[in-house]
Amino acid sequence: MGIAESILLTIATAATPLLIAALGELVVERSGVLNLGVEGMMVMGAVCGFAGAALTGSAWLGVVAGILAGAVFSLLFAFLTLSIATNQVATGLSLTILGLGLSGMIGESFVGSAGLRLPSLHLPGLSDIPLVGKLLFGQDPIFYMSIALTAGVIWFLFRTRTGLTLRSIGDNHSSAHALGIPVIRYRYLAVMFGGACAGLAGAHLSLVYTPQWVENMTAGRGWIALALVVFASWRPLRVLAGAYLFGAVTIGQLHAQALGLGIPSQLLSSLPYLATVVVLVLISRNRRLTMMNTPASLGRAFVPDR
Amino acid sequence: MKRIAIGLAAALAASLSIVPAMAQEKIKACFLYVGSKTDGGWTQAHDIGRQMVDKELGDKVETSFLENVAEGPDAERAIERFARSGCAIVFTTSFGFMDQTVAVAAKFPDVKFEHATGYKTAPNLTTYNSRFYEGRYIIGQIAAKMSKTGVAGYIASFPIPEVVQGINSFILGAQSVNPDFKLKVVWVNTWFDAGKEADAAKALIDQGVDIITQHTDSTGPMQVAEERGIHAFGQAFDQIQAGPKSQLTAIEDTWGPYYVKRINAVLDGSWKGGESSWDGLKDGILSMAAYTNMPDDVKKMAEETQAKIESGELKPFTGPITKQDGSEWLKAGESADDGTLLGLNFYVKGVDDKLPQ
Amino acid sequence: MRIELVKRPQQSALFSALSPFIALALTLVAGAVMFSLLGKSPVDGIYYYFIDPLREQWSLEALTVKAAPLILIAVGLAVCYSSNNWNIGAEGQFVIGGITGSILPVLVPQFQGPLLLPLMLVMGAIGGALYAAIPALLKTRFNTNEILTSLMLVYVAQLFLDWLVRGAWRDPGGNNFPRTVTFGPDAVLPKILPSQDTANLGIVFALLAAVIVWFLMGRTLKGFEVRVLGASPRAGRFAGFSASKMVFFAFMLSGALAGLAGISEVSGAIGYLQPTISPGYGFTAIIVAFLGRLNPLGIIAAGLILGLTYLGGEAAQISLGLSDKVVRVFQGLLLFFVLGCDTLIHYRVRLAGFGASKAARGV
Lengths: 306, 357, 363
Description:
- The structure holds 3 protein chains of 3 kinds.
- Chain A is mainly α.
- Chain A has helices at residues 3-30, 38-56, 59-83, 88-107, 133-137, 141-159, 161-171, 173-178, 183-209, 221-231, 236-258, 265-285, 287-293.
- By secondary structure, chain B is of the alpha/beta class.
- Chain B has helices spanning 2-18, 42-57, 73-84, 98-107, 132-146, 161-177, 194-206, 220-228, 256-267, 296-311, 338-342, and strands spanning 27-32, 61-66, 87-92, 112-116, 125-130, 151-156, 182-187, 211-215, 231-236, 247-253, 276-279, 286-288, 321-322, 328-330, 351-352.
- Chain B has 2 domains: 25-130 and 255-283, Rossmann fold; 132-252 and 317-352, Response regulator (Rossmann fold, 3-Layer(aba) Sandwich), CATH 3.40.50.2300.
- Chain B starts with a helix and ends in a 5-residue tail after the last strand.
- Chain C has a domain at 68-296.
- In chain C, helix 3 (57-82) crosses helix 9 (221-231).
- Chains in contact: A-B, A-C, B-C.
- The B-C interface holds B 2-3, 64-68, 70-74, 76-78, 80-82, 84-85, 95-96, 99, 107, 119, 158-161, 164, 189, 342-343, 345, 356-357 and C 47, 51, 55-56, 58-59, 62, 65-66, 162, 166-167, 175-178, 182, 197-198, 265, 269-272, 274, 276-277, 279, 310-311, 314-315, 317-318, 321, 323-324.
């Protein structure tokens, strides 16, 4: 395995959980809901994924457990913000606090136990092609899911009627409601999709990235996923690019160090956030672009009037 | 209701205390942790030490702890809570608790405090530390024997003296076997982030190292080593579970004997403040996990080195040693004093990195 | 839809008064259930959480130290949120305030005297205000979503502090440990009274800020402007209020208070700069602001209650051996109940659609 190939593989592994969680949040935000609880749902996915795998002996069942955990946990958020119209920012933050605590409680008995690794794909012949073989045909299954998910979200949002409806809700929930669209039901499903994605991203951490459970193992990746959605100005392909860019900066920074180049690591680490602010400014300057992409009713509570 | 109950209990206790020759009361030993007690690294090692106190002195001592305490005002409040809740001795187990321990110690002259890895003492405050670097010398030697590329990778947390000592000691050990041995260092700026540590391990391996060691606390790098089929050393803990084919040995933090010794000193009245203790392999404050996955001659060499360090015959920082910039640090036969080591802020020759300043 | 909300024509005074108590009662019930499940006596658990920390003076003083930054930040956020400006970057403004306020004691340690502390506090507040002005500027000039820019700037601030204390500002005599020199005596925020144990002036600042903002919001034209623009920007424009000036006012006021909280924390409770100076105060304060229902006086109570759960959590850890994860779960539950119950103030809840029995089971 050459160094270039192996660096690319490392970047793909680092980018995959960010990509998945960000895609989920993208759909949520496109529906006009801002869920700041990604970190909490992700860490719940990580612990339940690990526990599921440890208890059943199957890493695949662990993945399912992680997805379910994220989706179920997000229902709490959905119920509060959608059914009883609480403030989304405060509720999302509370969800993260609760998730970090709850995952610690659930995981207490799993700390230090050996994890199961989701086996990587291996296609004899194909996986051994130099340079691209492992990259294309030899990675973990969740990597392929993340790519399929990107394509799926693009197709859903921009090619299906339901996707169009979802976006119209995000842009103006009142007129969508006036047209007879069940706003709350759509948003419930979007939030659950976001939760499931965050859960899957968490399961990737505890079953592929570093197959183990440790408290707070998401280490802020949920917040990065949130940043990515904005960085990508709510476009799935740009989320993909952003996640890989972010992975590349993270990994490149480590390589720069191993090579003995003396660049302050904090400067490199802050680049993605600064870039996000710049991108935000650039897209919001152009009113047409903003109107096209930013869900206009993002973060605003919706209560159907009678 | 509760208050009345407490009042009653206090009255009861007061009336009882008049009665002479009462059974000896248990003393309380309290531990402040910066991480979770099941972090699989630094804090868990301390907690295992605390459990050893429970086991060995359980009839005379009662222990309690607070975990995940942030460095700063939260720590100060937690230490004060310990002091007020009747702890006879308080162990604060993170460098960042230093000033808070000093502040509370000044307020409670009758409570004894011990602060790990710091450098400020008081009449009722001692510091304690472990010569982790002694173990690093041994694993450096093993690395030089086992490596084919002649380059090892070191995943480091923060450029504090303790970590710099470890890096230097590792390369000195390695060079005692192979004078041309090289070391690549990656700073991850965290003590604990399994993902980031694993990424650092991958980066190092991709750049041609075939053996990795770490001064961070998760098993992330060990898992990567196992997956990529190279060797690695465990940190703070025996990590053989994460790397059954990879782990050569591990430097284990074994605080238990020290805690038992110090609490016994409190019990028999011989505890003295104002001191700094810096124990090593011979005192049992650190120990080496089983030497595995290596040929017998390497294992024999490691065991001999360990015996020499324990007997005091071998001191890792003994000249001739040249600094990274080529100037002389220690003349032949000269050993570094503890003061210099505790403030160590330069590399010796052979480290392929610029120390972050 | 199984649950239906009907907006009340005006806020329900009854539920305004009742909702915190309902939430507290629900939390106590949930807490009791949780403690029982963990094999602990629910009475003991609740006692250690809510009563034990209030029994001793030192612990009450520790409570003020914990609550002061939360109240100070939340009061500023209340103005922001009331005017419909979503500043969620108070954590970053807190950090920047801690940094700018520390410029003098770190870079000019020989400068001492009675002027030092006031200068530090002012510089901290200015630093926080200027940092908060960035999302305000971006919002007014470029129409950029302030929730997201202010959040991004939190990370930048944290990394900047990290870089400072590991590099340029590191204590040269500190053995390479990532922290600055310890502040001189004149740079330390004094105790309220010399006899005090830990309670410093931070809580006084917090209470003053709360009262001033309460007066500002309730009794002045500015407060009226905030509320009008918050409720309906269009109505505000007709009334001749400038929405973009309000964005700057709200952001810079809350940034200044967060910055003041930052430097008060650094100078009063820590005594030097280190890589992390806040255990998430800026985010927790968002919750405090909502717990206090964006009313400065309510925020005082909310800050104290939230501070209490931290202290009580420690007491429960030591006395009952409850793990600190339980503490966070408990906090999360409290917040959910409070947020949920506050809905009753603005809405009447009706169970509809598939009938009540199904609704009770639903979701």
